[in-house]
Automatic annotation (TrEMBL):
Pfam families listed in its UniProt record: DUF5753, HTH_31
Organism, as annotated: Streptomyces fructofermentans
Segments forming domain HTH cro/C1-type: 20-76
The protein's name: Transcriptional regulator
Molecular-function GO term, any one: DNA binding
Length: 284
């Protein structure tokens, strides 16, 4: 697992930058010579090679033409676009409102047969009640200083989307949370009690496997940020400032391995219910 959830995106950017740098050196050009051939200041060449500035498609084509590697241009353009798409700022996403984000993800949910979710901080959206979701989304609205707070409709949309766990069919939901999630008071006492009570009910659903990693469990590695795995094709990792999307098969495989390690650390059934009941008793 990468040391930081944004490291996959940064590594992808650096791979593009590194390949462009190698092409320049193989052509025997200095930074200044490459810049002159491309028609820009040499400082831009330096920023691109150090992954400080993402190159545009035009930049890449000019670069490859300058080093006589036109046959590699289109592959590098695709690689660069994929790298930039991996890291999407939450602020860009929330311009259309929090409700839009909830509704926009309905399709990928419908196309997924096996959901794997790990959370070290909050109850995952799949199992959130409306009161709990409202509290979480109000915090998001405040953090991002949204001009219009549509957290109410967004919470309702999140709950509506989450009804998928109750639908008959072959979908499976494998969810692992840290015990601390149960004690994180993000909502008022009534909303917290309702949320924890719903976890008891949801954990008993045939399609849901709900595991809780006890606080005293010996760690095989440190807790990760919340991440969702959609089948074997896509991973989304949630940060405060951005969402990282991982689609590279080898990296998705790393997340699957990490999830399996976390899943084995969790307790299930009666033991998980006991931890939830303990958290309910501690709500005040």
């Amino acid at each position: 697992m990468p040391a930081s959830p944004s490291s996959s995106a940064q590594a992808a950017r650096e791979a593009v930058a590194g390949r462009l740098r190698d092409l320049r050196k193989e052509a025997g050009l200095t930074l200044v010579q490459l810049a002159a051939a491309c028609g820009w200041h040499y400082s831009k060449t330096s920023r691109i090679e150090n992954a400080l500035t993402g190159p545009s498609a035009t930049d890449i084509r000019r670069w490859c033409s300058a080093v006589q590697a036109e046959d590699q241009a289109e592959d590098l353009v695709v690689q660069s676009v994929n790298a930039e798409n991996m890291y999407r700022r939450w602020r860009d996403q929330v311009r259309s409102g929090l409700r839009h984000i909830q509704e926009s993800r309905a399709r990928v949910w419908r196309d997924t047969d096996v959901f794997r979710v790990y959370s070290s901080s909050l109850v995952p959206g799949l199992l959130q009640t409306e009161g709990y979701a409202l509290a979480v989304l109000k915090m998001a609205a405040a953090i991002h200083e949204l001009p219009t707070d549509d957290s109410g409709p967004a919470a309702a949309a999140r709950v509506e989307r989450s009804r998928i766990v109750h639908e008959p069919g072959r979908r499976r939901f494998v969810i692992v949370v840290e015990e601390g999630v149960l004690h994180c008071q993000v909502a008022n006492p009534d909303a917290m009690a309702a949320q924890l009570g719903y976890l008891l009910a949801a954990g008993a659903l045939p399609a849901v496997s709900l595991g809780v990693i006890p606080a005293g469990m010996r760690r095989v590695h440190w807790p990760e940020e919340t991440f969702h795995i959609y089948d074997h094709r896509l991973v989304s990792v949630e940060l405060v400032s951005a969402e990282v999307t991982v689609t590279q098969p080898t990296e998705v495989a790393q997340y699957l391995v990490a999830f399996e390690q976390l899943r084995r650390m969790a307790v299930y059934g009666a033991d998980a219910r006991a931890l939830i009941v303990k958290a309910i008793e501690g709500v005040h």
